């Protein structure tokens, strides 16, 4: 797996149960996956020689992130390396403009968009839309980075000019009037088998996912089936091998629109580690190894995931002590920590709360968000005192 972050770390956990060894190309020896995997290659994902060292003798090469240069992957394929997903699929998760154009050609619902090479082009597009627009870097953005909202045409011009002056390629699209954000997570094997988990609702704050509600509450069977069907179709049309996350807008008019694609395990699927028969990490391995895919059925009516983000300031209480107090209050909490240094806003772990009989999604959400906030800040949102 290329990339030593938390996704590789959790994929390593799934590999152990399948009798597999996960070799990881990590940038640093203290990266999350490098702390736990016995087979580590230190190097950069932009270094072809490092990629070759990581790929030597492996069954399949896959990804913790999408940032490996396409030309390097094409070279590896030409040298006989099994790359999954293949570079011709992965490009649609690397390059937002390429993705938008291909999805439009496939008839998938996408916002109105345009490439822009000048501030004037951005201004003209915004005037044509007649409402707020979004400027995105074509490559490299994630967790809200490289995404800027513009309220009007003049602001769009200024934002685009700043990016272009820095040599950054950008695109522009309409800002969708949305009810909420959804994610459809699926997997596809080289054999062509597909599997889909229930569609989830993702809650964002400052461009970062903070909560996932699985399945999405109040989502009609019709819209849920449409979202899963769309994701499975895109996985097939694009030639994806492995897990595919399709981030979606549910519009105020009750329609679906594709926002982003990710071709790897995804934050919206962390709930599957405790709330589904097959986790996304095991499924990704099954898919890239061309095993039959696992059952994606949820284990309970609802599971809620809360992301643990680094607090500001970082608490003086150790994480070990915070976990101790959390378990004393919420023994049902399933904690997954990534071995990362705490920094304000950084994803350092997540908490899953799996529903019991008769528990509502609102109750589960309150507990998951309270648990995540405690681990982030060492403060209970309701003022609870563990020593009282």
Give a written overview of the molecule:
The protein has 388 residues and is α+β, with helices and mostly antiparallel strands. It has helices at residues 6-17, 48-55, 70-78, 87-94, 96-105, 119-129, 153-165, 221-238, 272-275, 280-288, 319-329, 361-377, and strands at 23-26, 39-42, 113-116, 133-137, 147-150, 170-174, 178-188, 194-196, 200-205, 208-214, 242-251, 256-262, 303-309, 334-337, 347-354. The strands form three sheets. Strands 7, 8, 9, 10, 11, 12, 13, 14 and 15 form a nine-stranded antiparallel β-sheet that branches. A four-stranded antiparallel β-sheet has the order 3-6-4-5, sandwiched between helices. Strand 7 (178-188) and strand 8 (194-196) form a beta hairpin. The protein is globular. The protein starts with 5 loop residues before the first helix and ends in an 11-residue tail after the last helix.
Query: What general form does the structure show?
Result: globular
Q: Give the beta-strand count.
A: 15
The chain-level structural class is alpha+beta
SSE string: HEEHHHHEHEEHEEEEEHEEHHEHEEH
Supply the number of helical segments. 12
Observed structural traits:
nine-stranded antiparallel sheet; single chain; 388 residues
């Amino acid at each position: 797996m290329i990339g030593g972050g938390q996704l590789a770390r959790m994929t390593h956990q799934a590999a152990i149960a399948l009798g597999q060894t996960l070799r990881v190309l990590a940038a640093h020896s203290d990266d999350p996956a490098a702390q736990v995997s016995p087979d580590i290659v230190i190097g950069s994902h932009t270094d072809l020689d490092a990629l070759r060292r990581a790929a030597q003798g492996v069954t399949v090469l896959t990804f913790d992130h999408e940032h490996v240069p396409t030309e390097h992957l094409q070279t590896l394929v030409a040298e006989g390396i099994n790359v999954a997903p293949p570079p011709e699929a992965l490009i649609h998760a690397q390059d937002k403009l390429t993705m938008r154009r291909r999805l439009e050609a496939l008839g998938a619902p996408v916002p109105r968009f345009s490439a822009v090479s000048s501030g004037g082009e951005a201004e003209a597009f915004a005037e044509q839309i007649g409402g707020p627009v979004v400027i995105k870097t074509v490559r490299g953005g994630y967790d809200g980075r490289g995404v800027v909202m513009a309220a009007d045409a003049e602001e769009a011009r200024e934002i685009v000019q700043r990016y272009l002056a820095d040599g950054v390629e950008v695109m522009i699209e309409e800002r969708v009037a949305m009810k909420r954000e959804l994610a459809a997570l699926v997997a596809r094997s080289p054999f062509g088998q597909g599997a889909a988990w229930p569609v989830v609702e993702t809650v964002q704050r400052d461009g970062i996912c903070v909560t996932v509600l699985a399945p999405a509450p109040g989502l009609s069977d019709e819209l849920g089936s449409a979202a899963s069907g769309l994701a499975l179709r895109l996985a097939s049309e694009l030639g994806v091998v492995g897990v595919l996350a399709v981030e979606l807008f549910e519009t105020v008019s009750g329609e679906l629109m594709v926002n982003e694609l990710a071709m790897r395990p995804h934050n919206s699927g962390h709930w599957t580690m405790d709330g589904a028969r097959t986790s996304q990490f095991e499924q990704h391995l099954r898919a890239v190894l061309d095993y039959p895919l696992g059952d994606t059925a949820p284990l309970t009516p609802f599971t809620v995931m809360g992301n643990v983000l680094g607090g500001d300031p970082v608490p003086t209480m150790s994480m070990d002590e915070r976990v101790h107090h959390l378990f004393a209050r919420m023994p049902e909490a399933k904690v997954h920590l990534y071995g990362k240094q705490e920094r304000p806003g950084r994803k350092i772990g997540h908490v899953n709360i799996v529903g019991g009989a008769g528990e509502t999604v609102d109750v589960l959400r309150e507990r998951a968000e309270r648990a995540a906030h405690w681990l982030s800040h060492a403060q209970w949102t309701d003022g609870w005192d563990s020593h009282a």
